[in-house]
Amino acid sequence: MPTQFDPPSGTRDFLAAEYEKREWAFGVLRSVFASYGFEPLQTPAFERLDVLLGKYGEDADKLVFKILRRGEHEASGEADLALRYDMTVPLARVAAAYGSQLPTPYKRYAIGPVWRADRPGRGRFREFVQCDLDILGSPSTLADAEVLAAHHDAMIGLGLTDFTILLNSRQVLSGLLEVFGVPPQLGSGVLISLDKLDKLSPDEVTAELAGRGLPGTIADDLVTAMTATDAEDRIRAALKDSEVGQAGVDEVDRLLALVAGQIPATRIAFTPRMVRGLSYYTGPIWELAAAGVPGSVGSGGRYDHLIAQLGGPDVAATGTSIGIERVLMLLAGDQAAGRGRLDVAVTVLGDDLAADSFALASAGRAAGLRAGVYLGGSGKLGKQIKWASDNGARWCLIYGHAERATGEVTVRDLTSGEQQQVPAGEVGGYLAARAGDRSA
Amino acid sequence: MPTQFDPPSGTRDFLAAEYEKREWAFGVLRSVFASYGFEPLQTPAFERLDVLLGKYGEDADKLVFKILRRGEHEASGEADLALRYDMTVPLARVAAAYGSQLPTPYKRYAIGPVWRADRPGRGRFREFVQCDLDILGSPSTLADAEVLAAHHDAMIGLGLTDFTILLNSRQVLSGLLEVFGVPPQLGSGVLISLDKLDKLSPDEVTAELAGRGLPGTIADDLVTAMTATDAEDRIRAALKDSEVGQAGVDEVDRLLALVAGQIPATRIAFTPRMVRGLSYYTGPIWELAAAGVPGSVGSGGRYDHLIAQLGGPDVAATGTSIGIERVLMLLAGDQAAGRGRLDVAVTVLGDDLAADSFALASAGRAAGLRAGVYLGGSGKLGKQIKWASDNGARWCLIYGHAERATGEVTVRDLTSGEQQQVPAGEVGGYLAARAGDRSA
Hints:
2 copies of one chain form a homodimer. Chain A contains 17 helices and 16 strands. The first copy, chain A, is of the alpha+beta class. Chain A folds into 2 domains: 3-330, 2-Layer Sandwich (BirA Bifunctional Protein, domain 2), CATH 3.30.930.10; 344-439, Anticodon-binding domain (Rossmann fold). In chain A, the strands form 3 sheets. In chain A, strands 1-5-6-11-10-9-7-8 form an 8-stranded mixed β-sheet. Chain A has a 5-stranded mixed β-sheet with strand order 13-12-14-15-16, with helices on both faces. In chain A, a hairpin with a 7-residue loop joins strand 9 (284-290) and strand 10 (298-302). Chain A is elongated. The model of chain A has no long low-confidence stretch (mean pLDDT 92). Chains A and B meet through helix 1, strand 1, strand 2, strand 3 and strand 4 of A and helix 1, strand 1, strand 2, strand 3 and strand 4 of B.
């Protein structure tokens, strides 16, 4: 395939099978989200440049696809618009624009492409779908619980059961830094190192902490507490001495209790060492880990005040993001497969028979089946039956001059090879009945 | 609403009701297209600049949104990518890229946004959805018939019946120019003027034709033949003297005969004066006119060779484009409306009751209903019932300390105002049964 016919670097063409699989998954997600009373939101592919830039720092700004001004301004080489980088900045704009028209709290989901000029790689694209579920305007842990339970149900809906939700809280992390005596200025660096305990050995993390200037005894104590077989108990005990830490533990326990009926205990665990890197989280945080997949397949948490920082109103907020591109890679390809393009394929064995053949296909569609006529140039029956078979049809309707003479159609079952003569006017009913047999 | 929170000029935010209406319509289209054995195709939002530019002339190129190069190249002010302008250029690229992997003929549909830097206006957007249905690789009139019948069925599926398909053929137009003696160099201009017979008076069109340099008698003859009450008969008779014209009439008649069982004769008419402005059409052409809508709500035709001109292989092609944004404006807003956000709204009347309330909502979802808990800050029952009602819920589940003491839930029917005590463990079954009653 010559390079010039590829889609642009980091983007993909979705032909039928892949498209159907994705649409199936998006449909499952929409349905789960709706069952919780979340409503959809769709914003434009691009935003004004000033809405997008400067929201997540310089590194993020570099990944923004900017759109050149048009007409007489094109020569300036300046941009005035940019492709959507995530779903949260548009959410902040929408919250500012439609405030009173939106329900309170505003429970919305967004499923759609975002664009980032990242270096393309395995599983990393420049155009990819984000799937976000958020509640604006409720500080209640019940809101966190709804988001988390909906995320869980979405995974189950997609047929995935082998995953774990790692649950923690920013307050727990603050408490940890406090009770272990981590100097405040080292706090965020220490958390970043602790987050690596799932990839690095305890000794490596201890060394990294020391490298950050953390006194060796503190580093030792922290890593030992975090990696002990009774780590959770140790941390719970230690945090009793920290007001903020204990508040975090209480919040985690409350959230665990709320979702207990919905999320099996084997699939969710308080994980004190889990640190979401993003500094905007203000309460519970979580990450989904799936068997055999490095990194997370979804994450979220409470992010009060972020909407204000992004240009929206200052509202309490919590949300989750389903790593749908990764999840799609986990799915077997057969959700929508196993179906051919057609149920009923109709031969066209002469120009003078074409109108009748076309009407037979219509009758098939009227019976609720997918039906089409042969559009190729061969008048040979064998070729046309091969076309029917190549398109996965269950039946081939053979209609030649002999059939016209008797007012019948030869219905060939392409699975069994059996043929039956059916009066032309009764083909729709015959196929509908047979289709019912099959699915029953 | 401050200007800076608007979506960019010419684009729209789709909140829940509008989104649901659009998704409903797209779902109808997908289902109709699949019933004919068309398969979906989705290509990236942007293409390489050289793929897009120079395909439809300079005026079209000016409407292309170009994407600035990134990183060190950003300062050059140059673009290397551009947002999709239509669905046909990407189709040509896909046909070139995946040729042998695609079925022959390739029957595909594409529904998705395109972007044009047009001056925004009433019903004219810079981001709008195009819905295209095409068959590549079949020169057969049966392919034109499938496309046309599927377009018709899509309109019916959307609930629209008051529309007419104006059918013509490029060969008919060529024959007309021939038999009325129009000088070849005036041909395309004459057709453009004749196309205005639906908006201008015959005299105005005659004058415009004269202005183009067409001898007055020819202009008179042409306009008289086209606007006579027996125009179709006159044109049919006149075209008997033109080989190409008669071939066009035969093709139109063949197409009419093929779709006769599918499209009522009242909804399709041979319309010799209908000229699709686009020069790339090579066979039958059609346009859909809907009552009360100026311009067309869809159009298409055969366009052999265009795919090659757009950079793809030289294949026979026919297709149709549903003017879905215009069609959506014709649709009543109530396809997906009349539904609230929730079926079941659950009170939260105390922190100690929250987990039970959350579980009640889960039971509602397990019964196939949309259910959520109260996330607001008020502990007052009246406020919570108002919230339930505001969200369109059919039932409010009231669960306070009194209910907990008896292990029951008060189920309030928000339509009738009736209340019933139901054992907490039986709420799901109770709601499922009641929901069944309602829909039965």
